[in-house]
Amino acid sequence: MQVTRSQISLFLCLLSCASVIGARYTPDWTSLDSRPLPGWYDEVKFGIFVHWGVFSVPAFGSEWFWWNWKGAHDFKYILYMVKNYPPGFSYADFAPDFHAQFFDPDAWAEIFEASGAKYVVLTSKHHEGFTNWESPTSWNWNSVDNGPHRDLVGDLGNAVRKRSLHYGLYHSLYEWFNPLYLSDKQSGFKTQEYVARKAMPELYDLVNRYKPDLIWSDGDWEAPDTYWNSTEFLAWLYNDSPVKDIVVVNDRWGNGCYCKHGGYYNCADKFSPGELPKHKWEKCQSVDTISWGYRRNMKLSELMDLPALIKDLVYTVALGGNYLLNVGPTADGVIAPVFEERLRGIGAWLQINGEAIYATSSWRVQAENATVPVWYTSKNSTVYAIFTSSPNQNTFELSAPKTSDNTVVTLLGNPKPLKWAPLHSSGLILLLPDLPFSPAQAWTLKLEGVA
């Protein structure tokens, strides 16, 4: 049978239509997990996490203050309240003191830009349920009707985007003491009143109103994703939302989902894999090792110093991850000077060494114990060897790179090529110049023309 040109055209049209239809994601994990991760996320590598809310007012213990006080009945928190507040004082009574009177979103954005971060993630709502925007389902438990009397989510988003940084929002699915949630929990999550009337309306509102580039979901672990209607939300997010082509999400969408479903994987807080993961991942870490929210009783010994932060960043990027570093502002809206010092220190290091971090990929070898420990990244045909302590000698050996007659080695920040010689079947020994002072105690060798 002879096939006509019109039949071929019709077939190609139907094939094209089927392809378009097939590109839509259905509300199941097989389909949703097949969505390619938008490319911007892997390129940026470094972001800033901001935990800010009513918990910033007591600023004691951690951002889990309310739960530790009234949920876990931790004696330390009970004693703190007895000593410092009158009988009958409730957690809601803290909210009016969440003034944020010194909150300058442009000043925050300048600090974040100076840190070298390329994306910022703000808590829109933590487990306490207080929303940092005028959520229509929050009654007066939000930052417009209470406390600061301003749209914190919108104000910071505008400032961050003016500096061409990506803007993401953290959102807790559950709320510790929300009566609707507690009722659903009592039913064994067979009812979904809280999801229908609170959690999902807020997520849709955040996306439509602020168009975030990233959604950092949390508070999912007590109930399965079927309770949260997570797959239905993500199908809408990927197919029809105003950010469907750019938005990135994490993996916290229901009990059993993390490290298994979603966009990139957070897995556990401060997740540190021992080897190169097969899936794009992110390490969230806090400058304050005890808390994500601001603590008035924090000690310097409890904070990560600059060398430790740079080592953590380098380790994460070498293993293919993004590094999301948290700071907790005060209830007044101030980023503590010690946090600002850390962020600007990272930025100063990235000004010199950033080409070994941004838009790089994991190399065939991620690390080696050379003269000192070395972490590798790569970009096209260039390999970077980042060492995070001084070798205290002029010679430096690397065993992993395979050199050629065209190999050129430089130290970032020093334009002069370094002298080197091959070692056996692979590797090289090179002569280091005097290393420039680095508060981060980390330097980068750039190797061009290696296999």
From TrEMBL:
Annotated catalysed reactions: a neolactoside IV(2)-alpha-Fuc-nLc4Cer(d18:0) + H2O = a neolactoside nLc4Cer(d18:0) + L-fucose; an alpha-L-fucoside + H2O = L-fucose + an alcohol; a neolactoside IV(2)-alpha-Fuc-nLc4Cer(d18:1(4E)) + H2O = a neolactoside nLc4Cer(d18:1(4E)) + L-fucose
Any one of the GO CC terms: lysosome
Extent of the signal sequence: 1-23
EC number: 3.2.1.51
SUPFAM superfamilies per the UniProt record, alphabetical: (Trans)glycosidases (SSF51445)
Residues with site note (May be important for catalysis): 284
Compartments where found: Lysosome
Family annotation (PROSITE patterns): ALPHA_L_FUCOSIDASE (PS00385)
Top-level enzyme category: hydrolase
SMART domains: Alpha_L_fucos
BP term (GO), one: lipid metabolic process
Family: Belongs to the glycosyl hydrolase 29 family.
Subunit structure: Homotetramer.
Function: Alpha-L-fucosidase is responsible for hydrolyzing the alpha-1,6-linked fucose joined to the reducing-end N-acetylglucosamine of the carbohydrate moieties of glycoproteins.
Protein name: Alpha-L-fucosidase
Organism: Danio rerio (Zebrafish)
